[in-house]
User: Fold this.
Amino acid sequence: MSASAPVEIPGYYYDSEKKKYFKIEKSQTAPSSAQWSSESVKRRKVEVRVAQEASNRARLIKNHIKRSVLRHDIVNSGLFARETGHQRNAESGRGRAEDGDVAAAMWARELTDKGQIAFAPSMTWNTYPHMPCFYVSGEDSGTESAVAYATLDEEMLVGKYVDTDINEKLINIPAGQRDPSRLHQEMIHCPQMSSIKYHQPSHKLLLTSREPGHGLALIVFSPPVDTDHNGARHWLLGGTDGYRKLLFRPSSNPHWYVHQSTPAPASSNLLCVVGTSNGILRVRSDETLGWISTNDVPPSIDSTTKVDTGRRKRPGRRARARYGPWHPQEIFSQDFQIGNHNVLFAGGRQPRLWISDLRSPAAEWSFVKHGSSIAHVRSINPHQVVVAGLQNHMSIYDTRFFQSDKTNPNGLTISSPMLDFPDYRNEAHYHIGWDISTELNLVASAQDNGTVKLFSLRSGRVLRSGSALESLRAQNPIKAMMFQTLPGEKMPSLYVARGPLLRKFGCAPVGNFDE
Assistant:
């Protein structure tokens, strides 16, 4: 018999605390608190027998319990819980309501094909590389119609008018003078175009170039706007008569280039911030430039443009080498904090999410240690930011509560995220399609196997999408996508650039009998 089970001796009681035997006495002669009184021994035997019977009964009926199959279906289980008034959580231990997760899952499940815009002849669709960037104007443009700007050769900017039917499906029927089947070319030359963004307060399109060497890096122009006989305003494609070259590459550093720009909110006095291989630039509303962070010589600028280099605010080269990378270096993505345009988030080749307040005379950077290099950064509310990078790392951080107390597979200390996305797959691509819709609580991300997945911002899990998006396959990862709500639409749709095609996915009815 094991040491944990003492030998039972008739007429004696074994005290496990004192580890010795006591002779059982009658209750009349034993002390009132004695454990070896006959009454106490009988009571404990009954308690042990009842507990053992209850344990055996629970073990027998455990196999008779069948979990509902609805628990595997986010939508049906969430709706059923809502009908029964049962309070559920999106993920065990997270403490967030299920409603947001259910709405996101419903939108993803009902996703259908809403047509496509072709920027090349049909015989070349299967041979064209993916468009590196595009922009679809939305309801924030202040016009009655929409346009789509894109580049096929990473050099020339082309556009098409976007028209939809009653079910929000793309159509090729001309609406007045706007012909959605015609391709309009803007007389703008931007080699290796890396991003197309729109600054709504100033009505300016921002183009950046990733071409290394001596040349243009940031181009700004305002699309002309026309008013028809009904008083409706529309962008005019192919009518741009000029553009401004705000930024040139330095002759002393031919490897300096730009990754992308981020338009500033309307409350800011900036036009945009620009992420480069050399740091971060700010472009003011008067189109003057200044470094927020820099690592080398500033770019050469047009003689009419003033640039604050900020060199006297930086330590020397020896100090930087001694104290390490104290500020952002090569930056792939940046974003302003929602609700506060003075706070900037940035991420790049360093495995750090950089945070800075632009009101300080010299930008001081704090950082969150991410598990890999960062390709995308997006603020989703005043306190939380989504970070997606390489080595399959995508996380949400709360800037109020984070600690560097985790260790990644490489043995490096990283910060604890508020939420992880375990099914996110991007092993080694910086320039890969990715966008967020806070209205839908969704993250759309191109996977490195050529597919597109939707993730919930509430739970971090991948959501089952409609067959139209599930069947989308490409040999190489998609490079560009975006959520956008067209004028007159009530919900955002997802636009995905596959080859020379701009495909639209939405969940609006596709027939008269769909609800």
Summary: Residues 209 and 217 are 5 Å apart (CA to CA). Helices lie at 38-62, 74-84, 99-109, 317-323, 467-470.
